[in-house]
Amino acid sequence: MEYFSYAGYEIPIHLINMTGGGPETFGPVAEHHMSDLRTTVGVEPSYSMVEIGCGIGKDAITLTQILSDEGRYVGIDIIKPSIDWCQANIAKRHPNFSFLHFDVRDQLHNPNGTTSTLDIRVPVPAGSVDRIFLWSVFTHMLRPEIIHYMREFARILKPEGLVFATCFVYNDEVLATARKTDRTPWRLFFEHEHEPGCRINDPASPLSAVAFTQDALQSMVKASGLVFDRPVGQGVWSGLPGKHSQDVMVLRRRRRTWLGRLMGLK
Questions:
Q1: Which residues contact 252 (CB under 8 A, 6 or more apart)?
Q2: Which ranges in 140-238 belong to alpha helices (H)?
Q3: What's the whole-number average pLDDT of the chain?
Q4: 6, exposed or middle or buried, with CB in 10 Å at 0-12, 13-18, 19+?
Q5: What is the rounded CA–CA span in Å between residue 10 and residue 86?
Q6: Which of 92, 116, 164, 266 gives 133 a disulfide partner, CB atoms 3.0 to 4.6 angstroms apart?
């Protein structure tokens, strides 16, 4: 087995390769991720953080240098060998870091999984998390699964907590530019409509890349108990100018009005 040396860890290269990129981009992507998180939603040493799709710990390793003993990190993924490695290596050195495996069926990374995304429950206390982040997770999910995750986020977020989630957002200009510039290795043209407001890139592998309209995203967010904290941040994946690689949603819990509180409504 081949290993990649990074920040004092010997990381199995085959696990790095399973979730995109390779050893040559591991460090630069980790630095980009943390810079984007810090400038977009902020990261403080005392934060409680949850990462969905933590992979082999690219972001967790960086966060071990940021979070204090008062902070907490929970990483979740469907690739069990990656979770096992993170738990045996990162969590062993940092007791406030933990990693959990969800054995969810997935076309790409866990086809023999025993559960559905709709069955999962993030095992942290309600109202306990400052930041939730997901890199390229909603880009591989359809509406029901995304709404389920968003509802879980609404449950576990602190009142002032935030979600940072990347996605693909399309309109006519985005699709035209993406097909003209072809900026990525995956030819993200989204030529196939899956349902109104949702397009997929490859009918043979529908979850390999999924994109939504702004209206579709708004509908999902509304159904979840979350709200947009700010407008969607445009990514450069399509060839249009932006501050992110993929498009970025920043979400928070819906705040109850005084009338809603008086009536016991959410």
A1: 157, 160, 161, 162, 163, 226, 227, 229
A2: 143-156, 172-181, 214-224
A3: 94
A4: middle
A5: 11
A6: 164
Residue with tokens 């045996």: 88
Measure CA of the first residue to CA of the last residue in the chain; give whole Å.
Answer: 52
Q: For residues 63 and 71, what is the distance between their CA atoms, to the nearest angstrom?
A: 10
**pTM summary value:** 0.93
The Cα 58–Cα 75 span in angstroms is 11
How distant, in Å, are the alpha carbons of 21, 178, 181, 241 from that of 185? 11, 12, 11, 18
Could you give the CA distance from residue 73 to residue 91 in angstroms, rounded to a whole number? Answer: 10
Q: Are strands 48-52 and 157-167 parallel, antiparallel or unpaired?
A: unpaired
- Answer yes or no: are the C-beta atoms of 76 and 50 closer than 8 Å: yes
Is the model's pLDDT at 60 over the cut of 90? yes
